[in-house]
Specification:
The chain is of the alpha/beta class. It is about 40% helix and about 20% strand.
């Protein structure tokens, strides 16, 4: 079951009641507004009830969107051990998809047909360096909580897809990591990978 709670301050009590029964939650942040005071309140409530979280940085298509700025805020203001699972493929009016750092693939969405399946392909050359840097951050973060992954990380060996997914899942459930995904939900960009 899914529970969608409003973020407005007037619904703080309802959010708190919801958190008591959740197995996990997706906390949605605005790529322009960042970590707002009410987001911080909800985050602290989730800490109180030990609810595992995934963060989703939304509205990458808005003017002034700053994925990396908001990612930094999640780490610094909320004290979360955030790791990127995706980075944006373009921002503002150039936002066309996301770069999947787990599979190291580009996921491009059809803006004219939002219901159409996204296309998985190679990472564009201009984003490859940033993708490698962010993947390194991901591997470094998850390796801290998994001996097998740490051994591979130390010896510059790539983990298998299954090893990485298992390590991420375990660390997330134990509240050790917060995976961060991104997109522009109004255009359906990044929504399917988040659900998956």
């Amino acid at each position: 079951n899914l529970i969608d709670t409003p973020g407005h301050v007037d619904f703080t009590a309802e959010v708190e009641r919801s958190l008591k029964v959740l197995d996990g939650c997706v906390v949605v942040f605005c790529a322009v507004g960042g970590v707002e005071p009410q987001s911080e309140t909800v985050w602290r409530q989730a800490d109180k009830y030990g609810v595992p979280r995934i963060a989703f940085i939304n509205k990458l298509d808005r003017t002034g969107a700053d994925f990396f700025g908001v990612f930094k805020e999640i780490r610094e203001r909320l004290g979360a051990k955030a790791v990127p699972l995706e980075i944006p493929w373009g921002l503002e009016d150039r936002c066309v998809g996301v770069i999947d750092l787990v599979q190291m693939k580009g996921i491009k969405f059809d803006l004219a047909n939002p219901s159409k399946q996204p296309v998985l392909g190679d990472i564009p050359a201009e984003l490859l360096e940033q993708a490698k840097k962010s993947r390194h951050e991901l591997l470094e973060g998850v390796s801290e909580f998994d001996d097998k992954l740490m051994d591979k990380y130390i010896h510059d060996q790539e983990p298998t897809l299954e090893e990485l997914k298992t390590g991420l899942r375990t660390a997330t459930i134990k509240h050790e990591l917060v995976p961060v995904l991104c997109g522009a939900s109004f255009r359906n960009i990044g929504v399917q990978p988040l659900l998956d």
